Amino acid sequence: xxxxxxxxxxxxxxxxxxxxxxxxxxxxxxxxxxxxxxxxxxxxxxxxxxxxxxxxxxxxxxxxxxxxxxxxxxxxxxxxxxxxxxxxxxxxxxxxxxxxxxxxxxxxxxxxxxxxxxxxxxxxxxxxxxxxxxxxxxxxxxxxxxxxxxxxxxxxxxxxxxxxxxxxxxxxxxxxxxxxxxxxxxxxxxxxxxxxxxxxxxxxxxxxxxxxxxxxxxxxxxxxxxxxxxxxxxxxxxxxxxxxxxxxxxxxxxxxxxxxxxxxxxxxxxxxxxxxxxxxxxxxxxxxxxxxxxxxxxxxxxxxxxxxxxxxxxxxxxxxxxxxxxxxxxxxxxxxxxxxxxxxxxxxxxxxxxxxxxxxxxxxxxxxxxxxxxxxxxxxxxxxxxxxxxxxxxxxxxxxxxxx
Length: 404
Prior knowledge:
Blueprint: H1 12-32, H2 51-54, H3 61-77, H4 82-104, H5 106-119, H6 130-135, H7 158-176, H8 180-191, H9 196-216, H10 226-242, H11 246-254, H12 256-276, H13 286-314, H14 320-347, H15 354-376, H16 380-383, H17 393-396
């Protein structure tokens, strides 16, 4: 079986998709302030009606990002040694991860505790000497339910930690299996054809949902997070395989409309289910739960197929805007959740109309992200802390955008 390994060295579509997915993440985390689900800070006036909108991206957003990250890693792996790949990823991901855990993320934990104390004024916890207690894991911030806030923590930076871990695992694979990219691509081209393009991934995701998720849930703690690893690492490897495949690209383009229709139908079914049982009453039957595992899986995979298909069809050009945003999304990701948490906590005290408050929060978060990027990219000693060192614009213009 032949593959198309050498025919593609640029994937503008994947870079546009990556940028779009990270921007959606900002909207999603803004929504987390308003929906009833647990989060670091919460509005005094919960908006249950936002849940269906949140579920538009909830099943597939991060899985898609891991897939695109795997594709980016393929371009790098095919032009460097395993040692260079490993070193480049460590330099790119580890300093921002550590910097975020000890500088960017702590305000999220601080305001989480502040809001807990506002609701439980008699709780035997406090925020005195917060940062020292945070970094030394000596805060003893425990709730009445016995759950404790473990620090230091990575919160939203779990994605970066997992991506670094997956890259290191892949590097070990490449040491003993030098043709992993081509072989994974061949396997994907063989399996993802005809009905199998939909059937096999949906069945795989549904079984993981019915087994690992039902038993372990999602923790984002790296160790013991079996369901998330099974889904995310599989997506990472799939992206590594499909990055250079003309065959898969053409198939995704061909089925983009059917995939979109199924994804919308699955989203509607999943949203109705979540809305109906949002208070755990009535209790859904085991048969309905199992059916919903498949609906969730269909939503996840078909949305990804539709996005990749429409992206491959229409997002075929780069340019200065893409180069700017491709570099900018990492700093955006680092700071966006802290900006949301801090601003949401204080905006909620102003008593603004909720629609206006939400609009201000979204605009201010994007503005803060752009401002952060514009500042840090001009400071050589700080760039590495935001994943930007060694990526001058003139060098980037000569490289495949997926390497950014």
